[in-house]
């Protein structure tokens, strides 16, 4: 009879996880946190972890045995945090939790994965006790039961996969407070694929992104950084890559910049009349014109890349630094981004600014119709096409020009500004104030281009 090897003895404070539930690549991060905390005096009210042991079936957080006067109830089991307390009874527990978090931050460590279950209440000593504070938020395998339990009320920035710091533990403190004062379990709801932070950062799942295109995104950001920021678009400053996410980091908008000055703008509406669609199209045209003035053609824009700022009466552009090959072929994000893309991009041939003119035509059709069309349906649209035969002749002429299969036969953005439909019955593309703004922008853009040319020439001479 063969005997299985007995597991090593474990302390009552050691924490054991099933290995199949643990993302093993995060074990090194746990060891780094343990090494960081070991440089300081042990936390006064928390488990003192000394190493991580990995077996074929288990991952064990080994804890240093507590001294005679340390540990929950001096070795006796402490109780989980209660629920439904009065504000007076919850106050001493919250003070204890705050002391634990403050001591952790004093040691230059922000956890991010703490929850009400990470704390217990030591009735004898009248103090809170903290456990599992060395685990990163990505410790558990996505989809496992342990992962779902750990993400129930996690901080929004962690749920979105963006970098985090000590404010994530402040969120945890708020969750603990709500846990003590309420009996209802609340959850943090974040979109699994796309999350927009208050600063308009955009987060993608890394598995949906062709990582070799990240360098191209960085080149576009560097190109746009040579000029004045786009007047009606997100100002991206860098790309951050985490093990699970790719984040487009956006510069916080100023007090007078951003959709609705910080309030959420609305997606482009559908089924509008030609008169009501005209101001939105003028705004989209200004966004594209400003982008092209900075020597950048996107190629991946779609109606979902624009929003309508009702308060300012202007369109707002996002994701304009993404190349058409940004998403992995076959992924859901790739399919959505290729629905009505320019035919030259769908064919995989080189493209330029005419691809964004095609996008302008698709946006116009999106505003004037309630039907979703694909690229094959729009190539070489004619006056008898069912997509546009209900429109006026002047609108049809604009759409036909924008949706030409041959990029060379499409008009330029400057040609579009002179089209009768966009000029309106009064013959003006925009109000007098808009014209002044456009003139100032064009003048400043020319100055910036001259400065950029001088910088390029000086670098060449060097």
What is the CATH class designation of the largest domain?
Answer: Mainly Alpha
Main beta sheet: 3 strands, antiparallel
CATH-level-2 architecture of the largest domain: Orthogonal Bundle
- Element order: H for helix, E for strand: EHEEEHEEHHHEHEEEHEEHHHHHHHH
Determine the structural class based on helices, strands and strand pairing.
Answer: alpha+beta
Strand order across the biggest sheet?
A: 1-3-2
CATH superfamily of the largest domain: Transferase(Phosphotransferase) domain 1
Globally, the shape reads: elongated
Rounded average pLDDT: 81
Q: How many structural domains can be distinguished in the coordinates?
A: 2
Percentage of residues in helical conformation: 25-40%
Stretches where pLDDT is under 50 for at least 5 consecutive residues are 1-11, 71-77, 189-199, 258-264, 426-442, 456-462
Strand content: 5-15%
CATH topology assignment of the largest domain: Transferase(Phosphotransferase), domain 1
How many beta strands in the DSSP annotation? 12
Specify the oligomeric state: single chain
Radius of gyration: 29 Å
How far apart are the termini? 80 Å
Number of helical stretches of at least 4 residues: 15
Write the layout of secondary structure elements.
Layout: E1 15-18, H1 27-37, E2 49-54, E3 58-63, E4 79-80, H2 87-106, E5 119-122, E6 127-130, H3 145-150, H4 156-159, H5 167-181, E7 202-205, H6 214-224, E8 236-241, E9 245-250, E10 266-267, H7 274-293, E11 306-309, E12 314-317, H8 332-337, H9 343-346, H10 354-368, H11 375-378, H12 393-402, H13 413-417, H14 420-423, H15 432-461
Antiparallel strand pairs: 1-3, 2-3, 4-5, 5-6, 7-9, 8-9, 10-11, 11-12
Helix pairs in contact: 2-5, 7-10, 10-12
């Amino acid at each position: 009879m063969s005997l299985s090897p007995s597991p090593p003895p474990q302390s009552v404070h050691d924490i054991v996880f099933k290995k199949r539930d643990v993302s093993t690549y995060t074990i090194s991060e746990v060891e780094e946190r343990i090494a960081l905390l070991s440089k300081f005096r042990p936390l006064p009210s928390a488990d003192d972890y000394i190493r991580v042991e990995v077996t074929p079936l288990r991952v064990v957080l080994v804890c240093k045995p507590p001294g005679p006067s340390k540990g929950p109830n001096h070795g006796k089991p402490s109780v989980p945090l209660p629920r439904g307390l009065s504000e007076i009874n919850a106050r001493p527990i919250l003070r204890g939790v705050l002391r634990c978090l403050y001591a952790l931050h004093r040691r230059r460590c922000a956890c991010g994965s703490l929850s009400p279950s990470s704390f217990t209440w030591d009735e004898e000593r009248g103090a809170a006790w903290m456990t599992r504070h060395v685990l990163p938020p990505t410790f558990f395998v996505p989809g496992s039961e342990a992962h779902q339990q750990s993400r129930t009320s996690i901080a929004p920035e962690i749920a979105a996969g963006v970098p985090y710091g000590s404010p994530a533990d402040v969120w945890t403190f708020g969750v603990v407070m709500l846990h003590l004062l309420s009996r209802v379990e609340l959850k943090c709801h974040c979109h699994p694929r796309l999350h927009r932070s208050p600063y308009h950062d955009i987060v993608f799942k890394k598995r949906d992104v062709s990582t070799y295109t990240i360098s191209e995104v960085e080149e576009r950001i560097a190109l746009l950084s040579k000029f004045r920021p786009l007047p009606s678009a997100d100002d991206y400053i860098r790309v951050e890559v985490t093990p699970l996410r790719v984040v487009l980091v956006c510069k916080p908008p100023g007090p007078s910049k951003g959709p609705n000055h910080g309030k959420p703008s609305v997606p482009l509406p559908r089924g509008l009349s030609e008169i009501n669609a005209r101001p939105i199209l003028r705004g989209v045209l200004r966004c594209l014109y400003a982008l092209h003035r900075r020597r950048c053609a996107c190629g991946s824009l779609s109606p979902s890349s624009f929003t309508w700022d009702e308060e300012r009466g202007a369109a707002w552009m996002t994701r304009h630094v993404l190349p058409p090959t940004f998403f992995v072929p076959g992924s859901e994000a790739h399919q959505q981004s290729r629905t009505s893309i320019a035919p030259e991009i769908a064919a995989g041939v080189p493209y330029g600014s005419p691809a964004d003119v095609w996008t302008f035509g698709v946006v116009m059709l999106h505003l004037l119709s309630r039907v979703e069309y694909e690229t094959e349906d729009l190539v070489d649209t004619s006056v008898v096409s069912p997509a546009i035969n209900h429109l006026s002749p002047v609108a049809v002429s604009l759409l036909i020009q924008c949706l030409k299969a041959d990029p060379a036969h499409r008009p330029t953005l400057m040609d579009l500004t002179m089209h009768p439909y966009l000029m309106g019955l009064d013959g003006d593309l925009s109000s007098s104030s808009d014209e002044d703004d456009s003139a100032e922008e064009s003048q400043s853009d020319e100055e910036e281009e001259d400065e950029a040319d001088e910088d390029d020439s000086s670098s060449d001479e060097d």
